[in-house]
Specification:
single chain; about 450 residues; mainly alpha; 21 helices
Length: about 450
Amino acid sequence: MTEAAGAARKNIWSRAHEMASKAPPERNRYVDFLRALSILAVVVGHWLVAAPYMRDGAVEGGHLLGILPWTQWLTWGFQVMPLFFLVGGFSNGMSWATTQRDGGSYESWYSGRLQRLINPVLPLFLIWTLVAMFGTLMGIERGVVAMAAQLALIPVWFLSVYLMVAALVPMTWRAWKRWGFASFWALAAGAVAVDIAALRFDVPYVNFLNFGFVWLAIHQLGFAWSEGRLTPGRALIWGMGGSIALGLLVSFGPYPIAMIGVPGAELSNSMPPTIALLALGIAQSGFALALEPAGRRMLDNMRVWTSVVLVNGMIMTIYLWHLTAFVLVMVAAWLLGGVGLDVQPGSANWWIARPVWFLLYILALFPLIMAFARHERASGSDRDVPHWRLMTGLVLICAGLGATAAISIASPMGVTGVRLWLVALPFIGAAIAQFGPVHRLAQSRA
């Protein structure tokens, strides 16, 4: 490590330690720990399952879950997006309750959340638009450009769903306060009904409703956690119940073992979510909250807590750019004649080489973090954006992020090789939701 890199690392740690020491004693550090853990597990999982290799001089996009079917069981541990929605429910519930108590507005509350989540995404979109455009103009095969862009932008699908879930917090919080756990079971019943309609009666497109039912249900458990309704003993019961339900669903139902999509599989448990993924979410939430007392004791250690603060301070950057780092390493290996890519994925030599590849991914990710982490530290607006602008911006942003995950920004036709209309949607949505004249509700109420 160079002297400059060492100084930068020390400076980052010092800032994180300062922030960690200022955390109020009543803060639930375990919430931050689970947030960091879930994102890091996703990063490791993505770096592990993506298994490109060289064949006949060309790069093949291998997928570990398809090459080694036994690894599909690992997704029960690495598919931890349910934990992120659990944490989101805790944080959103606490924050919205405080906003209501202080007389704040929904527009101000949600615009701040929207800005903090979308600002880090825009540089990623811009960079990959330029990469895809110049790659196409330089004559690189469009299929290769599309594969790289699609892989690097996989993380954005999650944000489109999370933004919509967060936008519904006033309604879901009201439902929680009125009906408690019944609001969770109602959403779970909706997910069951959707799966029956899709899998038993072949109703087209109805399964996409489970992006709402499944993730909103887990989000409701976050509300329960924030109000102390999921004590460790009760949470353990939920964890065991979710595990039993998941085991029954994959053993006797139509659901595959893998909790993420596997190339060539007829059914995916995640795109869109199924009740098998809901059962996994219940199990993970239950076991995670059963371990909360031990986790909070662990986080009393200042070094451990500082590490958590450090990761949370750049968590969106890590999540959004980790696959770009992966692509950079793969491109470098390809340019060097395919060094390291001639090993068959899943073989003993392939597993032995994983630590080396992971180190390369981390080294490629570090400068990206240094360059782009400042975008997630941008302060949110304290202004009340008119509701129509906020919702219009949200729809455009989510449409752009969702379409990117589905069809990629890379286009098989056209001079630029980029679907410019798709790239423009998040930028236009962010501009509508964040900039221009604002309506100050406090003045209107006066």
